[in-house]
Amino acid sequence: MEVQAISKYERISALKLRDLARQLKGLNANDALDRLALVPVKGARFIHKVLKSAIANAENNNNLSASKLWIQGVYVDQAITFGRFRPSARGSAHPYKKHTSHIKVVLTEER
Hints:
Largest sheet: 3 strands, antiparallel
Order of helices and strands: EHHHEE
Strand content: 35-45%
Number of domains: 1
CATH architecture: Alpha-Beta Complex
Number of helices: 3
Shape: elongated
Number of strands: 3
Strand order of the largest sheet: 1-3-2
CATH class: Alpha Beta
């Protein structure tokens, strides 16, 4: 049985999250939580939050044990980008973008 959790519009670029997401596939859910707690990267907090939500969904909605859950996949998609302007010399402005991401964690009972 598959259980999932989704977080949308997180304020971090998808490229920064995908490196972490690739490393988690196939791990036990509790081991992945421990590993993410030790990673000194901003994106680890976002994935940690979604993984905890997916485990809670499995326990509360489907009566599954957290120790038997495995990560089937962590999917990171690009969301909308916010356009902003930074003041520059001589009254001009330079544009820059603030990237956002959608994170989806899928857990399964069998490995």
